[in-house]
Amino acid sequence: MGTVDLTQFHQTFFAESMEGLDGMEAALLELDAGSTDHELVHTIFRAAHSIKGGAATFGFADVAAFTHVAESLLEEVRSERRPVTSDLIDLLLRSVDCLRTMLDHTSQGRPAADENSEALRAELAHLVETGTGVAAAAPVAASAPVTVAAAGWKIHFTAHPSLLQTGNDPVRVFHELKQLGELQVLRVFTVDAVPDEFAALDPTQCYLGWELTLSGNVERAAVDGVFEWLDGDCELAIEPLGAPAAAPAPATAAPVALLPPHPVPAAAVNGVSGHAADAGSIRVGIDKVDALINMMGELVITQSMLSDIGANFEPSQLERLREGLQQLERTTRELQESVMRIRMLPIATVFNRFPRMVRDLERKLGKQVKLEMHGEQTELDKTVLEKIGDPMVHLVRNAIDHGLETPDKRRAAGKADTGTLTLDAHHEGGNIIVRISDDGAGLNHAAIVAKAVERGLVSPGHDLNDDEIAELIFQPGFSTSAKATDLSGRGVGMDVVRRNVRDLGGSVSVKSVAGQGSTFTIALPLTLAIIDGLVTTVGNERYIVPLISVVESLRLKPEAVRRIASGNEVFHFRDEYLPIMRLHRAFGCANAVREIERGIVVVVEDEGQRVGILVDELLGQQQAVIKSLEKHYRKVVGVSGATILGDGSVALIVDVGGVVRLGRRSEQAAA
Prior knowledge:
Elements: H1 10-30, H2 38-58, H3 61-78, H4 86-107, H5 115-130, E1 149-159, H6 170-178, E2 182-190, E3 208-219, H7 220-227, E4 234-240, E5 249-250, H8 286-311, H9 318-342, E6 344-346, H10 348-351, H11 354-365, E7 369-374, E8 379-381, H12 382-403, H13 407-412, E9 419-428, E10 431-438, H14 445-454, H15 466-472, H16 494-503, E11 507-513, E12 517-525, E13 530-538, E14 541-546, E15 550-554, E16 561-563, E17 569-573, E18 576-582, H17 583-587, E19 600-606, E20 609-615, E21 617-625, H18 629-632, E22 639-644, E23 650-654, H19 656-670
Helix pairs in contact: 1-2, 1-4, 2-3, 3-4, 3-5, 4-5, 8-9, 11-12, 12-16, 14-15
């Protein structure tokens, strides 16, 4: 019989282990000092135990060794021999971070252990060995398991026939026991249920039992930990060496989530881990797959009907043809929606990183913060989800660092000591709206205006409304912090947030009330694969301008255009002069309209800068499925992709920021 190639299960192990660490972290954050919440402690222990078992199975020795020590410490907490303290929670959270790094290194084929992980493992081991922090416990009941070390143990282990079917393997148990001490097999025997005829043996059933001795200074808890894998799948009796033999009894250990002998079905989890999402894969709910299959069935039926009409077409079938085309349109639209839903994941994968961050920041800054999260199951495209994390991290850090006050300042302002930070996500129209709100001091309007005057962004004495003042914080390098910190205030913040959000086709704005707090609102498209665009013509070509960048379109009279000293053309638009970028000149289009009065100027905005793009005419608005031009041809400056129009022709999608830069260079060259 050939050996099984375990590498095929590695990716499943890494994904599940990262999800287990997320669960550990969430449970640790809920755990309070002095808590006796057995369910939370049990959840934490379970995750560590499963990771240890999987790592040992796949030969990841460093990960297994680290989790073994962490598990020993958690066992002391679980058995109430060690109290839960703030320092212990901090240590275990550091262990979670360390394990994430070790698993990440292992998945990349790099050594898992390094100087930091070994130092932390030694710290955990020292704590376990010294027993520091062991609480005075009530007398142990007679039925409680023995936890002291003995010279050795005699183990009577009888497998239930179904043991192998649950993914358990006695060889794995023996391997774990050998790590604890000297293991000897005294006797191997068969159970009563074994068939008399060899041909009747079922290879999926286990008919064996073992009598073992484990010699060495081994704690009973360590032996029990090995057999926790086999809950309900064996009969087990463990006695100190030299003690009278006891009758075998069913194992009483709690169930453990084992790594399955095959990859978890994709439908098992509708989402990805915030720490372990593989960039090249995605887990999809079975309901989404079913919907896709149903739509494909409808499409096959419609195609069959249209083929029949085409093969035997007569004028009398025109109405039937029209109905078939309408059905094809409906089915195609529903199929498109079903396909897009496959890429949709809950924003909880981003939100879940913030409880830990808030805990760390409130301790570092001496503040008290209550985090509220709403709409965690709101779904958006996986690509958008992966890229929105960093902007949100910056906004959350800013809210805690600059927005929320310290307890003494909040008391002086008549507020509760604990500030509230709220994350909310919901659908609004065709967008996802994400709001980050705090009940802190709000924006310091006076400081913002003073800084703007100092930098020459605003004239002294110029009156600004609240929205205009709030908009100033998005200027590059703008900061009112008296000093830079490692959290924020370095002068490179909100402008980067806005740029990153705009790169996703979204927008970010802020509303603030002095003394009551601030709300940052991020509007994001549901997906980056489809955009709403304005179809334009330039000469013999057609271009699509993303609607999110379009401010207005208008016709200009010749006298409305002025040529400045540099040779560039500008026009007056809402109390400011905007430059005109000739798209035909930027892309070298033939037969394009040259006279401005015959064309249309589309006003677009990029990073707060507005320009007018000259096109021949507007053909209308439509959704465009983005195709990568770089993948199929090469990268073109000023073009973000291409799409296929209804008549089968190709239209290029304008990269507004790139066209602005390209147009400026062309205008200067022409001048």
